Amino acid sequence: MKDIHIAGTGIWYPEDTISNEEIVLSFNSYVDNFNDLNKDKIEDGKIQKLEYSSTEFIEKASGIKTRHVIDKKNILDINKMMPSVVHEDESKMSIHAEVGIKAAKKAMNNAGVTSSDIDAVILGTSHAARNYPSVAIEIQNELGIDGYAYDMLVGCSSTTFAINNAVSDITSGIANTVLVINPEISTPFVNYAKRDIHFIFGDGCVATIVSKNNTSNNSFKVIDRKLITKFSNNIRSDWSYLARAASDEKSYEDLLFYQNGNSVFKEVCPMVAKFINNQLEENNLKSDDIKKFWLHQANARMVNLIVSKVIGSDNFDTSLAPLPIEKFGNLASAGSMFAFNLHNDLKSGEKGLICSFGAGYSVCSIIVEKT
Ligand code: COA
Fold first, then answer.
1. What residues form DSSP beta bridges with 184?
2. Gap between the Cα atoms of 264 and 262, Å rounded
3. Which of 23, 57, 192 is the best mutation target for the ligand 1 pocket, counting ligand atoms within 8 Å of the beta carbon and taking the most?
């Protein structure tokens, strides 16, 4: 049996930050403007008056205080309400490749590996930058890596599912070291005019080196992986290459990310807690054997609820389940490994658990042990 390790990680995030006060001020100005422009229709009952957002709601409901974004100015501008980006084309590097390489170099440094040690690149993300060629192949080329590379999409489980693929490839013998990259540039896909969504996402990227017998200072041995998917329409994006030819009318806004957040909350928390408990039992582990829970960062209350269900108490220190969501917002699939990158101070032999949950639904839980 080969020992396979998460040998190092690296993160990238943009410099711009938006506080709750700033995002609410922008949203509420948009609401005033909309209600003013549509005063007559609102009075006639033809359209509904928009309601204000609130900083108190955002922090209480999600735990988010700030988010890092690629373009603060245009997101907050009520005449734009989206970052300014350009189309992908062959004259320049993909936005995903650009940020992916920054995170990848840090992960390689952290793991003590160079391009010549890497046999494969797997890029997992919630939103593909383009259809083809794979951004993973572009990054492979830029970093001078031999072997193979591909992109994959599993919503908010794209990072953990990609790490799982890396472990499987190493187990099967087709690679020894795999570079996993997870760019999550979500803000171009956020409808900043929607009250229940406008505060959620930030931009960021994480990279992970998965490697056979790598016992660098930062490495964690992979003990167990467990995956499950269960179909749900509660988190959806209908953006598709079919848009050009589709005969039914839909606006850009119709095709963006939307969710029934409350149903997600209610359905996913018990599902994930049960899933983790089963995994611990199958591995003859007790919940107090897990010294750190690096969970998907969609909502701080969800993280705390899941951990309390797993350990059987809501009385625990926040250091047991770190919450980078407070500073970064929801980083889609990159959230759990952001938590891992920022809070991995375990002692040799101590175990931790990485778990994603998101659109699909998709869940992947990985138990690791500090070497
Ligand atoms: N400001 C003020 N009030 C708001 C608001 C805002 N920005 N957005 C919604 N509200 C209101 C709602 O209209 C509702 O009012 P009502 O009770 O009068 O109907 C009330 O707040 C509660 O709304 P609800 O949607 O039930 O809030 P919630 O407690 O479920 O929190 C989320 C919303 C999105 C933060 C939460 O559901 C969540 O994070 N869910 C998980 C989503 C997830 O994991 N998604 C995966 C994506 S990667």
1. 204
2. 5
3. 57
d(CA 313, CA 209): 34
Cα–Cα distance for residue pair 227/179, rounded to 1 Å: 20
Tokens in use for 339?
A: 């938590």
Domain-by-domain residue ranges, the chain? 221-370
Number of other residues whose CB lies within 10 A of the CB of residue 250 = 11
In Å, the largest CA–CA distance within the chain is 72
Q: 299 CB under 6 A from ligand 1?
A: yes
Over the stretch 9-38, which tens digit does the pLDDT of each residue have?
999 999 999 999 999 999 999 999 999 999
How far is residue 60's CA from residue 233's CA, in Å, rounded to a whole number? 25
To the query of whether residue 156 is one of the catalytic residues in this protein, the response is yes
Distance 34 CA to ligand 1 centre (A): 21
Question: Class assignment of domain 221-370?
Answer: alpha beta
Question: 218 pLDDT exceeds 90?
Answer: no
Averaged pLDDT for residues 181-207: 97
pLDDT confidence of residue 1: 52
Dist. CA 64 → ligand 1 center (Å): 12
Query: 298 CB under 6 A from ligand 1?
Result: yes
CA of 52 to the centre of ligand 1 (A): 13
pLDDT at 214: 79
pLDDT in tens, 93-144: 999 999 999 999 999 999 999 999 999 999 999 999 999 999 999 999 999 9
For residue 265, how far is its CA from the centre of ligand 1 (angstroms)?
10
Does residue 303's CB lie within 6 angstroms of at least one atom of ligand 1? no
Angstrom distances, CA of residue 339 to CA of 151, 221, 343: 23, 17, 6
Please state the separation of Cα 182 from the chain's center in Å: 8
The pLDDT-based confidence of 3 (bands split at 50, 70, 90) is: very high
